[in-house]
Amino acid sequence: MGVAVKRAQKGIQSIEVGYAVLRVLEHARGPLPLGEVAKAAGMSASKAHSYLVSLARVGLVAQDPVTNRYGLGPGALRLGLAALAHIDLLTAARAAMYDLVDATGHTVFLSVWGNLGPTVIARLEGANLVPVEVKVGTVMPMLISATGRAFLAFLPRVVTDPLVKPELKRLELAKARGQPALFDWSVVEEARRHGVSRALGHVLRGFGGFAAPIFDHEGQVSAVITVIGDMNLIDARFEGPIARRLLHATKALSRQMGYVEKKAAL
Questions:
Q1: Residue 23 falls within a domain, yes or no?
Q2: Per-residue pLDDT of the chain (266 residues; tens, 9 = 90+)
């Protein structure tokens, strides 16, 4: 039996070239002069101008009448908003969750911010079973779970404080009974620094995990994906493969949701 070879489908090259021009404007910090657009797109100024004129006619590009610089037009905005409206977060996240389960062997679940706090809306069981009742509808603790810490690190305090304060009081009562239950706020800064939160043995002794946020096009947290497993089997390092895979997955989902990551200031 011969091996089937997938042939490249024939396309329209001019559309692909025009898209390259749009990509230049997408990544620019502001409107660009013709020469910069041409240079970034790797074409002559006359060729870039022809594409810009056509793209402007359909509203994908706009030219400032005073400076003559080019930027994305209202048509590009409408297309972006229409694409966002068609994105199903749960469907997109579930595909990433299956990949994480296959790659790590650990249990993965997806949570959103609900009225009572971080609420699990999907769970996929890994090969390494987790004997903990984290099921759809479970509300995770804010302070001691990786999921809660991810929301705590990346949501505004005005949102999280009403739920954090009661948990802090419970921890203070536990301390009064002689239990080592003080909350170390450094874990929040740690999560922001790494882009991933971590909790080891707090919700269930002997089990730990990582959690990372998915951002929407406005930079708000849409959901959090968590990987949890037996601490004898899970790599608990921030630089380990589990944390790296999780962060890679959530960053890809954030881009799919329209999020543009801010570059660090030089």
A1: yes
A2: 444 444 556 677 888 888 899 989 988 878 999 999 999 999 999 999 999 999 999 999 999 888 999 999 888 877 776 665 555 788 889 999 999 999 999 999 999 888 788 989 889 988 877 666 677 888 898 888 999 999 999 999 999 988 888 888 776 665 555 555 556 788 899 999 999 999 987 666 767 899 999 999 889 999 999 999 887 888 889 999 999 999 999 999 999 888 888 765 44
β-partners of residue 228 are 107, 209
Domain limits for position 32: 13-77
- Which tokens in the block code for residue 183? 């909350």
The whole-angstrom separation of Cα 143 and Cα 229 is: 18
Asked whether residue 49 is assigned to any structural domain, the reply reads: yes
Two tokens, residue 38: 């041409």
- Are residues 197 and 168 part of one domain? yes
Residue at 161 is within a domain: yes
Where does a domain end: 42, 77, 112? 77
Q: Where are the beta strands (DSSP E) in the chain?
A: 61-63, 70-72, 107-114, 117-124, 197-200, 207-215, 221-230
Residues 109 and 69 in one domain: no
DSSP 27-78: HSSS-B-HHHHHHHHTS-HHHHHHHHHHHHHTTSEEE-TTT--EEE-HHHHH
Expressed in angstroms, the distance from the first to the final Cα of the chain is 57
Residues 6+ apart with CB under 8 A from 62: 56, 70, 71, 72, 73, 74
116 in the same domain as 201: yes
Question: Are 182 and 229 contained in the same domain?
Answer: yes
Domain for residue 263, yes or no?
A: no
